[in-house]
Amino acid sequence: MEKAKTKKLRIAFESDIDYSTTKDEQTGKNNQKEDKPESKGLIWEFIAIASVPLVLVLGNSMLVPILPDMQERLGISQFQSSLVITLFSVTAGLVIPIAGYLSDRFSRKAIMIPSLIIYGGAGILAGLGAVWNSYTVIIAARAIQGMGAAGTAPIAMALAGDLYKEGTESKALGLTEASNGTGKVVSPILGSLLALIVWYAAFFAFPVFCLLSLLAVMFLLKEPKKEQAPPKLGEYLRNIGAILKQKGRWLITSFFAGSMALFVLFGVLFYLSDILEVAPYHIDGVMKGLVLAIPLLGMVVTSYTTGSLIKKNGTLMRWLINIGLVLMTVSLGFCIWFYNKSIYVFIGLLTLSSIGTGLLLPCLNTMITGSVQREQRGMITSLYSSLRFLGVAFGPPLFGWMMDKSHQTVFITVTSMSLLTLILAFFFIKPQGKIGG
């Protein structure tokens, strides 16, 4: 009788195991948070994760409105001022893959915590460089900040994949993208307000936000324990190579799409920051920050809504990716003729493009984090984030160079890039069913 009862319990237990996954995948699923209604603790975890991309964006986008002031105060060129954004992003883009490997090798928090400290400390150094009127110190500090930034938002994305599954994961990833966008909305306004105190106040402001994020990561996030020893470097790189060989067509296309979207977004911010101050607009100060925030607000609302709705529905993601890229292509295409007709029409078109970006990015985030097991997730998300940073890096200087040619050149180029990405995504990004099993 006792044996029969034990047998029944064993059968009932085994029937709950999903044999379509490997043992490691099943263990990883058991360690992740279930798809239950958000408890108070889960909400605080979401806030802690979302604070990391928010701080990252504040440290970059908050400087966009003050670039013209920096040119005037330090006696530097438009290209030199754009390097304040570009050098930060290039350094981050180069270091991110290393940070990703280290986060897989050790732990996510072991990389995020010192990275946030470096990021905030270098921000103070950049502020001192501005006080000393030293462009060299500012640029050096921004490069160090880029190194710190490499271990922040990209690792937070991987950690969200570790902590949650199903709809909760896509919601968390949508929230990180929305937080990223919220930072972009708030930062031009905040940067413009701080500039009313003194033009370099923004340099000293974001280390404060950095400290708050650091405390949230340290005390509110509990990282799941690793179930097995991490592979050695050689084996790890072979695993990454195998993933890229097997899934490279859609992964590389997804990497390119994310990079292109950020290239356009930051390029447009740089473009608007420059043209709004001159004829026929003459919009400056806080009002300029508010205008810059309008397209970004469209992206934020769309990103959060998209992340909440997609769950892990591959078919829905494919539709939204293509719709987002169509919106970007069409709206940027109309800007070729309407960029100087009406500020309302122009900002409306750029907002439509940003809504397209808000449809695109959460889908890419969910697909990429769900494409690999936890042991390689840090590297794969870091490769993706690295290319996104490079898109941010080259946006301002290339937009500045194209603006010297003509304003129409700017929009012909970005429309062509969006159309190319749409074609590639249509043929190569074809998620179906449930992403990540």
Automatic annotation (TrEMBL):
Residues spanning the membrane: 42-63, 83-103, 110-132, 197-221, 250-273, 285-307, 319-339, 345-364, 385-403, 409-429
Localization of this protein: Cell membrane
Membrane association type: Multi-pass membrane protein
Record key words, sorted: Cell membrane, Membrane, Transmembrane, Transmembrane helix, Transport
Superkingdom assignment: Bacteria
Upper lineage: Bacteria, Bacillati, Bacillota, Bacilli, Bacillales
Designated name of the protein: MFS transporter
Record-annotated Major facilitator superfamily (MFS) profile domain positions: 45-433
InterPro entries for this protein: MFS (IPR011701), MFS_dom (IPR020846), MFS_Efflux_Transporters (IPR050189), MFS_trans_sf (IPR036259), Tet-R_TetA/multi-R_MdtG-like (IPR001958)
